[in-house]
Fold this protein.
Amino acid sequence: MDLLGLSYLGLDVTDVGAWRRFGTEVIGLMPAVLPPETESADLAYLKADDRQWRIALHAADTPGLRYAGFEVGSEAGFATAAESLLASGGWTRGTDAECAHRAVRDLVWAVDPSGVRVEVCWGPTRDGGFVSPAGVPRFVTGELGLGHFVVLTPDLDASLDFYAGTLGLRLSDYVIIGEGMSVQFLRCNARHHSVALTAVGPIAATHHIALEVDDIDQVGAALERATRAGHPITATLGRHKNDRMLSFYMRSPAGFEVEIGCDGRLVDERTWVVNHFTGGDDWGHHGLTGDSLAESVEAQ
Ligand SMILES: [Fe+2]
């Protein structure tokens, strides 16, 4: 299976309007340009580039990642992937309505061991330019996909089997963060990771989603907008050891966190070595510890 990247995310949020304001005014995403009947008080869409939308917001009592879409590049590639996934058991063909909602040509889906609906799709819809309401020149997407997400899984082996074994994502490296606790970083393109799996006990939850911007000034500008708007900064500015991302984390209105960073390391498949890191950061990121992962989820 040759997944090209993270295509879209669907987020369960407790207040769609509040998250939409946070997404546009603080993160700098653009409201999607869609027929009016496709949005409501319970549903909103945000653009990050020339795709019709990249992040959907769904009203829900329990916040977290509702679904994540990964894409293949062609109908033939999708046919091969779908055949193998449907034969592996637990996978279902998307309905016409689901494909229309996701603005893709076709999809198959299954639920991962942490409860996230994972979709494999092809044929995304592009509807033109991106203009950030917060002045972000661009988000780093394209061949690297949308960004990444990090989930807490109660069964790390099952989650690794799902993402690496079934979907073919590749382990970039891992960090041991405590007794029986680790973070496993998986990629499907040159971005160091599109998914990270964290085991901190019997918890299934979303820790954060991350978007990349061009440079430190854009990270700083996002930090400034978050601070001025009063959103808690859950991890201070810092640089991760493994993906070299310079970033900060903030608590979104739904509870789960959003990381904004730059300088993400690109993987050269020919020379990459899977490393074990004994710590997460070169400097900074105060507030981001093994214990804080669980505490953050309890705060949701
Ligand atoms: Fe991250």
Notes: The chain has two domains: 5-122, 142-298. Residues 148, 150, 208, 210, 259 surround fe (ii) ion (CB under 6 Å).
